[in-house]
Amino acid sequence: MSLPPGFLDELRTRTSIAQVVGRKVMWDNRKSNQGKGDMWAPCPFHQEKSASFHVDDRKGFYYCFGCQAKGDMFKFVQETENVGFMEAVQILAAEAGMPMPERDPMAQEKADKNAELAKVTEAAVQHFRLQLKTQAAAEARAYLEARGMDAATLDRFEIGFAPNARQGIHQALVGKGMRAEDVTLAGLSTKPDDGGAPYDAFRDRIIFPIRDARGRCIGFGGRAMAADARAKYLNSRETPLFDKGRALYNHGPAREAAGKGQPLIVAEGYMDVIALVKAGFGAAVAPLGTAITEDQLRLMWRITDEPIIALDGDTAGLRAAMRLVDLALPLLEGGKSLRFVVLPEGQDPDDLIRAQGPAAMQALLDKAEPMVTLLWRRETEGQVFDSPERRAALDGRLRATLQRITDQGLRRHYADAIAELRRALFRPASQPWQPGGGRGKWQPKGKWKGRGFAEAQAPLAATRARVGALNGETLRTGLIVATCIRFPDLIDLFEPQLDRLPPRDPDHARLVAHLLRTATRDAATLLDEINASPLAPALESLLGLSHLAITPFLIGNGDAVRAEECLEEEFTKLAAARAIEEEMAEARHDMADVPDEGDPALAYRMKEALRSKHAAQNPKGEENAEQFGETTQARSAFHQLLSTAGQGKKKGM
Question: Which CATH superfamily is domain 7-96 in?
Answer without folding.
Answer: Zinc finger, CHC2-typedomain (3.90.580.10)
